[in-house]
């Protein structure tokens, strides 16, 4: 009986220690996220373009577009997932494969690639400058089914900078998609995304984006693809009355309209939903 009491007491002590450790872990994590977020402008992540600020949220996108031969394609998930702030000024994104529905007899539906992004915010201030700069590197794995992803892994380094002018925020990012092999046949793609956002009232962020891709090598060598993307973000709707709580809903929409002669798709309607935590 005494031995059983000792065992039971030990188990209770061990369990309470684990619970306490987990509680302290999450408190420290939440404190880090709050402290890191306070040292940057309170901009929202654009509908399509990368952002110069770091965020912690879960995200899912839905897209409906028309290919160059006028076939409809649905993208469920948008290749988004969870963005975390595990360290100060650092964001890690785990991007889950999207599901692509082509509505075509010649193209099979399937999943896209899995990717991970690491972002580091170099310089930022919310006061006395209202700016932010960051570098990020994305690494994708060719997990797509039925040719719905890349043929090889890719690395995409990107530099992003932004400046605020009152309620107006302007951000721009320059990057490149670099295949890890077969680059002479696949080619490289230079990405240039810019966005202007304006905070209107308490929740609304109307925006206009320019999304450009410049192809070097591969089947589209020398071509460029440019879209203008008007959109709006609603951010954020708090889910708890506690002013210290980060839990909230963010949602928005935009549509990519091709302005270049060459474009692989057009009229890409984007619906985005996010849960901050």
Characterization of the model:
There is one protein chain. The chain is mostly beta strands and 277 residues long. The protein has two domains: 1-38; 41-276, monomeric porin ompg (Porin), CATH 2.40.160. Helix content is 15%, strand content 52%. The protein contains two helices and 15 strands. It has helices at 2-38, 183-186, and strands spanning 57-67, 72-77, 81-87, 90-95, 99-101, 110-111, 114-125, 131-141, 154-165, 168-179, 188-198, 204-216, 224-238, 248-258, 265-276. A twelve-stranded antiparallel barrel has the order 1-3-4-7-8-9-10-11-12-13-14-15. The radius of gyration is 22 Å and the shape is globular. The termini are far apart.
Keywords:
2 helices, Porin, 277 residues, mainly beta, single chain, 12-stranded antiparallel barrel, 15% helix, 2 domains
**CATH topology-level fold name of the largest domain:** Porin
- Indicate the CATH architecture of the largest domain: Beta Barrel
| Total DSSP E strands | 15
What about the largest sheet? 12 strands, antiparallel, barrel
Tell me the name of the CATH homologous superfamily of the largest domain. monomeric porin ompg
Instruction: Spell the H/E element sequence.
Output: HEEEEEEEEEEHEEEEE
Q: Percent range for helical residues? A: 10-25%
Instruction: Extract low-pLDDT stretches.
Output: none
> Percent of residues in beta strands?
over 45%
Please write the CATH class name of the largest domain: Mainly Beta
With strands numbered from the N-terminus, the spatial order across the biggest sheet is 1-3-4-7-8-9-10-11-12-13-14-15
Counted by DSSP, the helix tally is 2
């Amino acid at each position: 009986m005494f031995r059983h009491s000792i065992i039971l007491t030990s188990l209770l002590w061990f369990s309470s220690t684990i619970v306490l450790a987990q509680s302290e872990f999450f408190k420290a994590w939440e404190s880090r996220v709050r402290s890191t977020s306070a040292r940057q402008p309170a901009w929202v992540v654009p509908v399509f373009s990368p952002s110069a600020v770091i965020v912690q949220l879960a995200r899912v996108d839905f897209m409906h577009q028309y290919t160059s031969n006028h076939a409809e394609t649905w993208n469920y998930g948008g290749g988004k997932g969870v963005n975390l702030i595990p360290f100060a000024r650092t964001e890690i994104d785990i991007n889950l494969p999207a599901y692509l529905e082509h509505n075509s007899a010649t193209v099979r539906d399937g999943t896209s690639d899995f990717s991970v992004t690491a972002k580091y915010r170099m310089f930022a201030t919310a006061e006395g400058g209202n700016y932010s700069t960051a570098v990020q590197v994305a690494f994708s794995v060719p997990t797509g089914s039925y040719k719905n992803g890349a043929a090889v892994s890719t690395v995409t380094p990107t530099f992003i900078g932004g400046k605020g002018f009152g309620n107006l925020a302007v951000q721009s990012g320059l990057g490149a998609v670099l295949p890890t092999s077969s680059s002479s046949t696949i080619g490289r793609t230079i990405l240039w995304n810019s966005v202007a956002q304006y905070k209107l009232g308490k929740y609304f962020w109307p925006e206009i984006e320019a999304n450009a891709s410049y192809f070097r090598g591969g089947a589209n060598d020398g071509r460029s693809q440019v879209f203008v993307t008007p959109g709006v973000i609603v951010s954020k709707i708090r889910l708890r009355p506690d002013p210290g709580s980060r839990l909230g809903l963010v949602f928005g929409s935009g549509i990519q309209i091709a302005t270049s002669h060459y474009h692989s798709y057009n009229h890409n309607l984007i619906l985005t939903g996010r849960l901050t935590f």
